């Protein structure tokens, strides 16, 4: 049996946040919008916070009342509002991964572009199967096989989304005594990924200043119109996610700062080949 969520689904939160953004753009008090819909103030507040489900017809009606003049955007929000929760290929992992992690997986699967940086390891979307297995079997986990399968399934998004990954050169110096040859396998995976038109890989060199990229792993996701970008900060519990424009803009600037210190794409590709050929120890 699927466990009941302790927090609203990410879909409901995003729908509510978008509706609130449109309402605030015209400086309409929430009480006025609630009265226009014939709702109580508490109900309207719960809709905007994602705690109360709103259907397609209600989204269209509310958008008309607050003057949203963007039919394409209204249709997109209405479509997502109508989708039932607990659907998608990731639903089968609901009892095997944290809510925060599954929220991230759902967001990632809908993204049109993904930017990610990790100060220690290879980003998950370009990890080889052996690297994925090593990371999960060596870490504390009650369901390593499920988490391995989930991470590998996530990589399907690279068939359609733009991906920009910043990879620390130090990750290539990791030693895996239990899996000889793992790093060569991983380097081949990165070289193959770098050949994809939608993938940009940059290596953060060992000589980069230690302050660059030292604040932890993060991922920035962008989506089709009208959804605002989402930034995710990684942690062992599955991460925290924000779509606050100011916070996302700050993290976007941080990502670009790290990217500016990384090697250009062509030099990064050459360095991967050099490591594969054993030119760096």
TrEMBL record:
Residues 19-74 form the HTH cro/C1-type domain. It holds the Pfam family HTH_31. InterPro entries: Cro/C1-type_HTH, DUF5753, Lambda_DNA-bd_dom_sf. It comes from the Bacteria. GO terms for molecular function: DNA binding. SUPFAM superfamilies: lambda repressor-like DNA-binding domains. SMART domains: HTH_XRE (SM00530). This is Helix-turn-helix domain-containing protein.
């Amino acid at each position: 049996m699927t466990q009941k969520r302790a927090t609203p689904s990410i879909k409901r939160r995003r729908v509510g946040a978008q509706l609130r953004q449109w309402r605030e753009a015209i400086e309409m008090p929430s009480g006025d919008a609630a009265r226009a819909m014939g709702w109580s103030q508490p109900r309207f507040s719960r809709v905007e916070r994602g705690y109360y489900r709103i259907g397609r017809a209600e989204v269209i009606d509310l958008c008309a009342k607050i003057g949203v003049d963007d039919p394409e955007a209204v249709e997109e929000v209405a479509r997502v509002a109508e989708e039932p929760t607990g659907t998608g290929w990731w639903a089968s992992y609901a009892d095997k991964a944290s809510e925060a992690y599954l929220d991230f997986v759902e967001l990632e699967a809908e993204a049109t572009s993904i930017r990610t940086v990790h100060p220690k390891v290879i980003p998950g979307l370009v990890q080889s199967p052996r690297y994925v297995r090593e990371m999960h079997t060596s870490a504390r986990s009650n369901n390593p096989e499920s988490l391995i399968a989930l991470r590998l399934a996530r990589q399907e998004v690279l068939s359609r989304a733009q991906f920009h990954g910043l990879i620390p050169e130090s990750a290539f110096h990791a030693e895996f005594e239990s899996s000889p040859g793992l790093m060569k396998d991983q380097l081949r995976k990165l070289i193959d990924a770098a050949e994809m038109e939608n993938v940009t890989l940059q290596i953060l060199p060992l000589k980069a200043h230690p302050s660059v990229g030292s604040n932890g792993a993060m991922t920035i996701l962008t989506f089709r119109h009208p959804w605002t970008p989402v930034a995710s900060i990684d942690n062992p519990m599955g991460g925290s996610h924000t779509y606050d424009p100011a916070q996302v803009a700050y993290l976007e600037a941080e990502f670009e700062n790290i990217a500016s210190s990384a090697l250009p794409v062509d030099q990064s590709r050459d360095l991967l080949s050099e490591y594969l050929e054993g030119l760096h120890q």
